[in-house]
Amino acid sequence: MTRRILLALLPAALLAAPAFAEGEWTVLFDGKSLDGWKAAENPAAFTVADGVLKVNGNRGHLFYMGKDGNASFKDFELQLELKTSPSANSGVFIHTGWQESGWPAKGYECQVNSTHGDTIKTGSLYNVVKVNPAPHADDVWFTYTITVKGNHITTKVNDTVTVDYTEKAEDIKGDRKLSSGTFAIQAHDPKSVVQYRSVKARAL
Question: Which of 79, 140, 142, 199 is the most core-located residue (most Cβ within 10 A)?
Fold first, then answer.
């Protein structure tokens, strides 16, 4: 193949290349801003200060859009460091997509809740696999790891696996299914305060 042909094909090849190299961690939250993220319904619920993303306010969702606005993941490992306050509720959506308002209809929600009244606790796949009691305490930083490979979802809090789930056709409800998509962080209600200090992902 001639050099001229190679140069002509290069832009297309770059466009086709995955945004996230397999096996390499990509930092999604830079600790300084919401660059790459877009808030729906209630942007005021998401603020950044002192290296921390604070989530507090009426219902809203913060979607990871990426630099080009088209972030999408299929098989991945997502790792977050976060801390809940007493009675807080939040969630991390996977394989979801931008939605102007309402609870995201697409993908799965990985619950965040230690002492909120909802009996579905951190590590759960909301309305699919229930974890109770909570595997962590309030006011303590912990690591939340969510892994998707094919039709298999694993959630882990610190070093403890909380969900090891294989999706079955009979479990699929509308768009609550594995496909591909981005991530979203949930603001649940004004009494809920959750802090995220690290969000990173890598393709598998």
Answer: 199
Length of the chain: 204
Task: Report yes or no on 5 lying in a domain.
Answer: no
Number of domains in the chain: 1
**Which residues are CB-contacts of 45 (< 8 A; sequence separation ≥ 6)?**
39, 55, 56, 57, 58, 59, 60, 62, 187
Cα–Cα distance between 140 and 131 in angstroms, integer? Answer: 19
pLDDT digit string (tens) for 130-178? 999 999 999 999 999 999 999 999 999 999 999 999 999 999 999 999 9
Tell me whether residue 10 is in a domain. Answer: no
Per residue in 54-85, pLDDT (tens digit) is 999 999 999 999 999 999 999 999 999 999 99
| Domain extent for 56 | 21-203
Residue 75 structure tokens: 């098989």
